[in-house]
Write a structure and sequence with these properties.
By secondary structure, the chain is an all-alpha fold. It has 10 helices and no strands.
């Protein structure tokens, strides 16, 4: 996806006062939440058909591959909130899917397949896996997931080769370690929602998740644009 620049204030349709800006902010976020819920219905349907059994765990990341373009479009729409003149979150979201679904899949699918392999190994080994090995595999799984999120973010806003996206995603795990901790905290919250509530709870709060995700990765996106592109800030 190209790193397109669109200058201008947000949502003039609601006016320019403080209350109008707050209203526009809430409207944009609510619309993105609704759009993400609608776009991810196939993912939710697959999860509803999937029984909560240890043997089905490897299927979870494979199903989540389909969520990559939705998450990417949500990020694209969140950035557009302060970059477009019209208060049209649906237009930004649809544009994000239209121009970036393939790049999102290319970036998101490899880490999800890797996660599926790790979970399959744990499911097959069962009790034969020692505590140390289980901990090591779990740590690798978390690192791969963080790498995947970084890769998805980069692919959403920049037209780089896959290998460059993969390298930058790894590089920024260490360079922006505060952002990495933020991503980790976000994943902990998402996991807790699924474990103690249901997948439906995470689905309903997808727009909230992507809003926090965008706030965390903004410095990374800005740094990549400044250091690795020639586009004007």
């Amino acid at each position: 996806m190209s790193d397109e620049q669109t200058q201008g204030p947000t949502g003039s349709g609601f006016g320019t006062g403080a209350l109008s800006k707050i209203t526009a902010f809430i409207y944009w976020h609510l619309m993105v939440l609704v759009l993400m819920c609608v776009a991810s219905l196939p993912v939710v349907a697959l999860f509803l058909l999937l029984a909560r059994a240890p043997g089905n765990l490897p299927l979870v990341p494979l199903i989540l591959i389909l969520y990559g373009p939705v998450l990417s479009a949500g990020l694209y729409a969140m950035r557009d909130r302060t970059r477009v003149e019209e208060l049209a979150p649906a237009r930004s979201f649809v544009k994000g899917i239209r121009i970036g679904w393939l790049d999102a899949l290319k970036a998101w699918a490899p880490p999800m397949v890797f996660e599926a392999v790790i979970l399959a190994g744990l499911a097959i080994s069962g009790d034969a896996v020692g505590g140390a090995i289980f901990g090591l595999l779990a740590m690798i799984g978390v690192i791969v997931l963080l790498w995947g999120l970084n890769a998805l973010v980069i692919a959403t806003f920049f037209s780089f080769r896959w290998i460059d996206i993969a390298r930058l995603a790894i590089y920024y795990l260490g360079r922006r370690w505060i952002g990495t901790l933020g991503l980790l905290a976000l994943l902990v919250v998402a996991t807790a929602l699924v474990l103690f509530a249901s997948e439906g709870a995470l689905w309903l709060f997808g727009g909230v998740f992507v809003a926090f995700l965008w706030s965390i990765v903004q410095p990374t996106v800005a740094d990549i644009q400044e250091r690795f592109t020639t586009a004007a800030p």
